[in-house]
Amino acid sequence: MAKSTPGEAVPVRQRGVTMKDVAKHAGVSRTAVSFVLSNRENASISEETRTRINHAVQELGYRPNAGARALASRRSDWYGIVTEIVTAPFAVNIIKGAQDQAWLDRRFLLIAPSDQADAVGPNEGLEDAATEKLLEQRVEGLLYAATFHRGVHVPASANEVPTVLINCFDADGKLPSIVPDERGGGRIAVERLLQAGHTRIGVINLDPVIPAAVGRLEGAREALAVAGLELDPELVVSGYATADGGYEAACRILDRYPQQDRPTALFCLNDRMAMGAYDAIKERGLTIPGDIAVIGFDNQELIAAYLRPKLTTVALPFEKMGALGVQTLAALTAGQPIIADQQLVDCPLLERSSV
Amino acid sequence: MAKSTPGEAVPVRQRGVTMKDVAKHAGVSRTAVSFVLSNRENASISEETRTRINHAVQELGYRPNAGARALASRRSDWYGIVTEIVTAPFAVNIIKGAQDQAWLDRRFLLIAPSDQADAVGPNEGLEDAATEKLLEQRVEGLLYAATFHRGVHVPASANEVPTVLINCFDADGKLPSIVPDERGGGRIAVERLLQAGHTRIGVINLDPVIPAAVGRLEGAREALAVAGLELDPELVVSGYATADGGYEAACRILDRYPQQDRPTALFCLNDRMAMGAYDAIKERGLTIPGDIAVIGFDNQELIAAYLRPKLTTVALPFEKMGALGVQTLAALTAGQPIIADQQLVDCPLLERSSV
DNA sequence: TAACGCGGGTAACCTAGGTCACATGCTCAA
DNA sequence: TTGAGCATGTGACCTAGGTTACCCGCGTTA
Fold first, then answer.
1. What is d(CA A11, CA B129) in angstroms, rounded to the nearest whole number?
2. N-term to C-term CA, chain B
3. What is the rounded CA–CA span in Å between residue B307 and residue B323?
4. Among A29, B23, B277, B294, fewest CB within 10 Å belongs to which?
């Protein structure tokens, strides 16, 4: 509520105007002020008193003290989110989605950093400390968000309040989680290539054990199967998840075959690798998408939207996952049952110019 | 503080263990517990009582209630940061720097979104609301952080608590701010090119009125002046701050001259434009840095570190600015005088392979 | 011997607001 | 006339913890 519109005289807000001051100014009891401000259903306060109180609020520039309210009402309206995203901002849109949704619900998001870059690292301490700190703030629920899709271990004290995992899942137990539908994303990517007439499709794979690689590849297989095709294992090449890794993998795949056997499309399991693949393709005098179509995964704006030609890719629904995480948490804290142990969120295709 | 080490039986923490419970369990008064837990200097509590209390704390799994403490002690240990960075995550490392520093100082950072994408837009409302919400939480200080260096207007109520601006400055007044030393960055970039033997340097400029462009260009001029050179206005070409804009600008600059007069180096005022310039250069069969050296600005990791060859660029010190913002705020809230109205933070050169 | 100081500790009040049982005063029906 | 019922509020107690003034018993000192 922006109480000061430009032009109007801004009341000087002396620090620390309390309800008591408002009550005195309006000539009523503090209780009456409380009733009016919290809009109690069954409070019987005359319209006239009500406006007198509201006037006093305006004139004194009263601002409620959220902490005191939280203490007395035993509801903080705060959620805590523990995340390494602040450290490695790849998935920062999770925070954006969560933040926006929380803001809509008039709740505050307390962000606590986690340095737990690797799933079961030795520095679990920091994460524990973050959780502890958030619980000291009496958050009503906890979110854990990871930069990349994986299993994680959550500190034991997280069980004291409703908890939801975003872009990761509980490696040991029963906490609800929100993760991207990697398989669906892999399927839609390959479907798009098939639709464009490609049947010989090369795959530039990530580290084959991470959930992202497993799911995306399986999706690719499904799409091919529907078209009556099979994934040729020879056409699947793994590499480091970087532009260099993508470059090398693409070189291997492109140089392996004579021109007529060469794949006409590459499905790169992330955009960074697609970036490297672009270079390999261009170096060989081939055009995108004329000679070889490329489709990526992740939709890293800075890469996908600025590559030339712009990269068609499958987006990770970070923002949606963040929002859904907060919604799920809201449902849990309101006592509603869990919708599902693991909610999958669609990975939509983003058409640009590389297919 | 992770109180539970694995293996040890975790005490069941019934919700809401208070100091009263601890006191009863230890057979002392609540006051004594408070004294021990807050480590009061002049409290006289025997060592024996002290350990009895600490034991009770452990056994009951007591966790202080931060809100109640804030209320009673009238210090919240919270800072608020209003920022559009969550929306446009370019400068997300400001948040990281601020967050880390706040965490070190054992303070919480409340992040409130601002949609004020343009400096004096019509939707100032949201920003006001964010500030108001933060003040309701009784934050001890406010930070405003922008995604790109510019002048901003801050809601009037921000004057109620110490306030520091990060990556932006107060367009109307006297609030202290932390901004990048654009001029120094421009200077160091051109110095690097001069040092590599380039004397004919093209500049791909941003929108010439924004502080970043003004400062960086001025720095470039200074560096040239020291070497006894002048900036040829014909070699300065402006474009949209995108890869496409950089591509077009580079084309114009490269095609304007016969080979012998062509600049041997390009200073691109941001990395996205450098990305486009790369394409223009490669298209013409020229090599980087062999035929043309390129230096960028911003150090957008995803671009600079993944371009081929990797882009030498000047980094914007986001993380440092965030940390310095919190430090400055801490000094202000502690009653110390402002160090300077505007603190400049160095933009360091990042050597990679394009010069 | 009274006064004083000190170690060890506590009752009581304060922060800012939520909530409930009860107190007015008025109207209306029996 | 009186009691019930309703509209309009209010005093008092609660949340969880910080802080201050003071108490008690014991040893010292003037």
1. 17
2. 48
3. 29
4. A29
Tell me the pLDDT tens digit for each residue of B99-145. 999 989 999 899 888 875 544 444 455 678 899 999 999 999 999 99
Amino acid, res. A220: A
Q: Which residues contact B48 (CB under 8 A, 6 or more apart)?
A: none
| Positions of strand D less than 7 angstroms from a protein CB | 7-12, 14-20
The order of strands in the sheet holding A201-205 is: A236-238, A201-205, A265-268, A293-298, A312-315, A349-350
Read off the amino acid at residue B151: G
Tokens of A286: 């081939």
- The alpha-carbon gap from B1 to the nearest alpha carbon of chain A, in Å, equals 5
> Tokens 């209390």 belong to which residue?
B53
Q: Judge: B132–A1 Cβ closer than 8 Å, yes or no.
A: yes
Instruction: Please check whether residue B239 is in contact with residue B204, taking contact to mean a CB–CB distance below 8 angstroms.
Output: yes
Predicted confidence (pLDDT) per residue in B327-353, tens digit: 999 999 988 877 678 999 999 999 999
- Distance from C-alpha of A174 to C-alpha of A159, rounded to nearest angstrom: 10
Tokens 């030339």 — which residue?
Answer: A308
Q: How far is B128 from chain A (nearest CA, A)?
A: 5
**Consecutive H or E run containing B255:** helix B243-255
Long-range contacts of A207-214 (CB under 8 A, 24+ apart): A207/A238, A207/A241, A208/A238, A210/A148, A210/A149, A210/A150, A211/A149, A211/A150, A211/A151, A211/A179, A211/A182, A212/A148, A212/A149, A212/A182, A212/A269, A212/A270, A212/A297, A213/A269, A214/A182
Judge if the beta carbon of A15 is closer than 7 A to nucleic acid strand C: no
Residue B52 is inside which H or E element, if any? Answer: helix B47-60
- The shortest CB-CB distance from B2 to any of A13, A15, A132 is to A132
Distance CA A210, CA B284 (A): 41
